[in-house]
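Inverse folding, one chain.
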């Protein structure tokens, strides 16, 4: 008699006991027209959030965004304003999808957006971006922060 082994379909990084709960909660929040405190939405209404990895590579802030199936020349817009990088993309629905008689239709289409704060000292005019294999990589040069100074005591006058 042979034993069947269950193969976990999730990647190892997602095997934490709360990973599935996190995904369910995020999906639920995407579908709710709720507003958070101070009138902020969980994410831009009608848009899904772009998944990113962000790290420092020496004097460069690197942001890698997952955007498979996107034409970066037509469907991606990068803007910088007030110390934040906005990535906006759109995956367009294929025109012949209605005639295919889907058994399963899980690919997401529509607008995707993410706003990320840039590091202090980011050189906003020298940002470079590239796209390869479904990953948008944005490289932001960051000048070294000024040396930390001792706090200055400010005298208070009565009067």
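Residues assigned per position:
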């Amino acid at each position: 008699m042979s034993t069947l082994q269950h193969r976990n379909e999730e990647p190892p990084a997602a095997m934490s006991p709360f990973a599935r709960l996190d995904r369910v909660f995020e999906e639920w929040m995407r579908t709710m027209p709720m507003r958070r405190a101070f009138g902020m939405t969980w994410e831009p209404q009608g848009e899904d959030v772009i998944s990113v990895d962000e790290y420092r590579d020496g004097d460069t802030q690197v942001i890698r965004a997952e955007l498979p199936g996107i034409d970066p020349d037509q469907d991606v817009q990068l803007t910088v304003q007030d110390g934040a990088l906005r990535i906006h993309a759109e995956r367009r629905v294929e025109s012949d999808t209605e005639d295919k008689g889907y058994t399963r239709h899980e690919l997401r289409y529509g607008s995707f957006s993410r706003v990320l704060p840039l590091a202090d000292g980011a050189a906003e005019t020298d940002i470079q971006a590239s796209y390869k294999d479904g990953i948008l990589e944005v490289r932001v040069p960051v000048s070294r922060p000024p040396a930390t100074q001792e706090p200055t005591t400010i005298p208070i006058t009565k009067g």
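The radius of gyration is 22 Å. The mean pLDDT is 77.
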